[in-house]
Amino acid sequence: MDADVIVVGAGLAGLAATAELADAGRKVLLLDQEPEASLGGQAFWSFGGLFFVDSPEQRRMGIKDSHGLAMQDWFGSAGFDRLDDEDKWARQWAEAYVDWAAGEKRPWLHAQGVRFFPVVGWAERGGYNADGHGNSVPRFHITWGTGPGLVAPFERRVREAVGKGLVEFRFRHRVDELTVTGGVVDGVAGKVLEPSDVLRGVSSSRTEVGDFQLTAQAVIVTSGGIGGNHDLVRSQWPKRMGEPPKRMISGVPAHVDGRMLAITERAGGRYVNRDRMWHYTEGIQNWDPIWPMHGIRILPGPSSLWFDATGKRLPVPLFPGFDTLGTLEHIMTTGYDYTWFVLTQKIIEKEFALSGQEQNPDLTNKDVRGVLGRARGGATAPVQAFMDKGADFVVRGNLPDLVRGMNDLTGDNLIKLDDLERQIVARDRELTNTFTKDLQITALRGARNYRGDKLIRVASPHRILDPKAGPLIAVRLNILTRKSLGGLQTDLESRVLRTDGTPLPGVYAAGEVAGFGGGGVHGYRSLEGTFVGGCLFTGRTAGRAAAKAVS
What are the pLDDT digits (tens) for 222-261? Predict the structure, then answer.
């Protein structure tokens, strides 16, 4: 045997699993097809958002959360409807995850030095009935240091284990096969890729320079999802959402290709809920791209008016930040794969945040003065850079010029000035009174009842066509690929299951490749803040279970 355990994929789930294995004294080979610069995977690029329940941060902000309310929101969003089959284990993982988020999760991270921004964000607000989709209360906790701050303690633990001789990195090792002997997975085989010194996230060479075969008592697959493989996304696009978009941009690097899903299937594992996926509708092209078709997601407050490609306002409750997949499903009925935000300078200054650590240097660098500067007004430097250089932004002093700019940008000439103006004026009239029939205005007023939103997230209500709030801004929004919600079916010990429901001996899975647990812990919809947390929970579980199994 070359090691006790082989871990395939050096993202956050792989690091968490490896750290647990090393803590138990097991010898680990940690493989990844990318160079060492990409250690930490997608999590490094993330905002580091985490889903906690009844946290100290929530209580300090006056938020009353509970295990029961979180469970209600999770199951209302998940909509599990394959309970005798593909959702059997996913539902159990969901219950376990909410238990963890309401209990040990925060103290476990805090003990490793992870800290959190004091203002809790409110993502995926829903807008339906109480037992439907969405977060009833703010639960999105931003890691102080964003993605790099969350990856750091696990990378540190693994590197310390390297120093002790318990862990060995094998970068540029692309796994092409799980080897099976007598029905038991006992190793991996594949190709060694040529050395690469590309920067993190940049596409690396696929030139093969050798072969390898390695054996171990167990293999843990932590290779991520399919978001960088647009062909695979389209081939698995759910029929309930119509035809897949003709054009998409990528929220993840190209190496997030989904290869290990098919490789594990060939070894006998079961891939379930492949028609469930999570893509964002507020994507903008990165003016300074790192990977192919690099897109950034706008994390919007609720005030921008949202129009389809023809200039028709999206229906209730498809407001910014309310229902990601509901909005995506509606967009795909319009015949176009892009939409528009129309807003003001006043709104963009307070309500536009951009996903990813590189778009939030103040939070990433733990710059207290920089973070406090957000409350003083003005667009953040990254947002201003997109306004100045972004291909999807139109900034004009009046509505006729804005409409001309929108039509010039797309070349479709679909936006009609009279119709757009009629809808905006109608909305603006509703602000005259403290009561209204426009539910988006009701929603943004309600949001400002939360201290965190009023402080840094939601602009005071104002007329879009008020010259004092200008200039006017239009942003073309693209479909941005991101997450797989389905994956390898696993039991509560992260063991990969076969089609007959029994464990495939010798192989475990964690992170996105496992649908973040059980092959689809989120069901049809996510509550946000649950992706990197899912990597940690499943990675920790897989590492501990494998360590016990090979003892």
Answer: 999 999 999 999 999 999 999 999 999 999 999 999 999 9
Minimum mean pLDDT among 24-38, 94-108, 326-340, 366-380: which range?
A: 366-380
Token pair of 292, please? 């192919």
Q: What is the DSSP track for 116-172?
A: B-SSPB------S-TTSSS-SS--EEEBTTHHHHHHHHHHHHHHHHHHTTSEEEEET
* One domain for residues 370 and 491: no
Rounded Cα distance between 291 and 38, Å, is: 12
User: Where in the sequence is the domain holding 339, given as residue range(s)?
Assistant: 279-480
Asked if residue 493 and residue 441 are part of one domain, the reply reads no
Upstream peptide bond of 315 is cis (omega within 30 degrees of 0):
no
Percent of the chain with pLDDT over 90: 98
pLDDT of 254-273, one tens digit each?
A: 999 999 999 999 999 999 99
Burial class of residue 525 (count of CB atoms within 10 Å of its CB; 0-12, 13-18, 19+)? buried
* Polymer length of the chain: 551
SS3 for 407?
helix
Let me know if residue 47 belongs to a domain.
yes
Q: Is the pTM of this model over 0.85?
A: yes
Pair (491, 476) in one structural domain: no
* Rg from Cα positions in the chain: 23
Q: Is the pLDDT of residue 373 over 90?
A: no
Pairing relationship of beta strands 472-484 and 173-181 according to DSSP bridges = unpaired
